[in-house]
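Input record (one chain):
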Amino acid sequence: MDFKTIAKDFLEAGIGTDSFRELYNNCFNLMKEDRDNALIYHLIGSIARSYVLAYDDQPVKPESAIKSKALLEHYIPNQLEVAGFNT
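The corresponding structure, as predicted from the sequence alone:
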């Protein structure tokens, strides 16, 4: 799996905690495979992990979940470009 696929899967996923969990698991796994871009994966994975730790065991208002996902949806394409995946 590569970052472009991970990003696409997250961007197409729902707003539930599971999509954030999958994002951080995939990013942390990818850090081991692609050390050149590990900082990018760590940053995005940590953001997603923070969301999961904060909201995993409690209900989240849809508006809050949408806002959190939108922030990452805005950020991820920039990181794809930095990592050279949009070229």
